[in-house]
Amino acid sequence: xxxxxxxxxxxxxxxxxxxxxxxxxxxxxxxxxxxxxxxxxxxxxxxxxxxxxxxxxxxxxxxxxxxxxxxxxxxxxxxxxxxxxxxxxxxxxxxxxxxxxxxxxxxxxxxxxxxxxxxxxxxxxxxxxxxxxxxxxxxxxxxxxxxxxxxxxxxxxxxxxxxxxxxxxxxxxxxxxxxxxxxxxxxxxxxxxxxxxxxxxxxxxxxxxxxxxxxxxxxxxxxxxxxxxxxxxxxxxxxxxxxxxxxxxxxxxxxxxxxxxxxxxxxxxxxxxxxxxxxxxx
Length: 282
What we know:
Elements: H1 2-68, H2 70-78, H3 83-88, E1 92-96, H4 113-120, E2 129-131, H5 133-136, E3 156-158, H6 161-174, H7 180-186, H8 195-215, E4 224-227, E5 233-236, E6 241-245, H9 247-256
Antiparallel strand pairs: 1-6, 2-3, 4-5
Helix pairs in contact: 6-8
């Protein structure tokens, strides 16, 4: 009987020890996995915060850089690239338009020498400029367009488009019903041609300006002001502020870089085999 009791005690002790060992093993194992998961979460969080911090720093650096070159960034985004953009550099400044209805300036005078000189000073009759070969493709010029011979510097002859727009606006001014006879009688510039060509030239200019105004549509607004204190009435305020490019710098560059007034007879490269030659004016 004594032996049997001892066996039972030993059996009970062994069972208890096994149970205790199993429970301790389970607790230890569970604790190890929980600690590992926690470390992973902390490491992942640290990496994410570090990545966000790095992105923030990179953003600050790029933001500071682009803030210093915002004019270039904006002009490249909204305008066709050209040598003008590279050599002049486009800048913007706030300017107020002169929108007076009754107070005329020199650009609005009737036909005569003074108004002609004012428009001439804007570069409306400047000759073309040279676009270097390396700028041609990015400037929208095709490889088979007219080129200047290499012995005369090479490149492509071209006109600054903004000055062509002003040329067109000047022609519309000259063709106004109260100016037309004056310029027609002078017979200079566009008016050396017959009336049929003059009409086509004018309508060409009108439509070019239409397309330009639609392309660069001004999204600003015209408010209204009160006029006539004795009997106030609303009137549109045309004297609005605008972000304007540095026109004078562009004009000076175009003036300084005009092609020769009387170029040699062999100034241009003749068309190469395979170059497009249109059967008529496009």
